Amino acid sequence: MQILNPNLMELMFVFSKLNNWESKLQQLKLSTIENWIHSKAIKIEPKHLLRPRYWFKKTNKYKRYLYELSKMEVIPITYRPKHINDRSEFGHYEIDLVVGAGKSKSILTLVERMTRMAFAIKLENKTMKYTNEKLRELIKKESIKIKSITKDNGLEFNLLHEVTKEINASLYACNTYASCEKGSNENFNGLLRRALPKKTSFEKLENDNINSILDQINKMPRKLLNYNSAQQLYEAFC
């Protein structure tokens, strides 16, 4: 007697229950029956299975709340003005996180789009309120004048509109899975990763260490800036 594949046995049971063709089912291949199901030639419901399984639509009220929260006071990047997109005006920033090994500690990075001047501060965690607190601290410490910030869709930035509202700045959000839309910050993060490669622990990293790395990057002549440094251009506008 031929021992049938368990999956085939279940499909045979389903098909026989639906169509009463039990005597002919053993001649069918598993792929044939699967094709019928996938093409919806036969309709399968959980109750028809040999071992019924029921599927439920996954809902998560908390995630839905965070999603709705993230849209508050946020403008899609599609509607970001031309003078920001072409970098013709000073004072528009991009924000991101660089995460250390274990994802427990991270670095908040803020890059000015026109000059590529970068600022950064260490985060002990990635909660929304704490991220806002550290951003406020960074802005105050460095006396940063911000006209707009462009963010990605990370949960840590879902309350960022609270900060931008305080400083009277616009907040733009990249499209989902399109971090390339804040390329200035992504490029800076790559430069930062030269000194802090992936899988580097940030546990013992201090802000003094971060500032030392920032100083090297900001003072580095760059072809993109006609061999000026980001700091030289930034200081010309301050």
UniProtKB/TrEMBL annotation:
Any single GO BP term: DNA integration
MF-aspect GO terms: nucleic acid binding; transposase activity
GO cellular component: a single term: cytosol
Domain Integrase catalytic intervals: 77-238
Database matches in PANTHER family: TRANSPOSASE (PTHR10948), TRANSPOSASE INSI FOR INSERTION SEQUENCE ELEMENT IS30A-RELATED (PTHR10948:SF23)
Protein name: Transposase
Organism: Williamsoniiplasma lucivorax
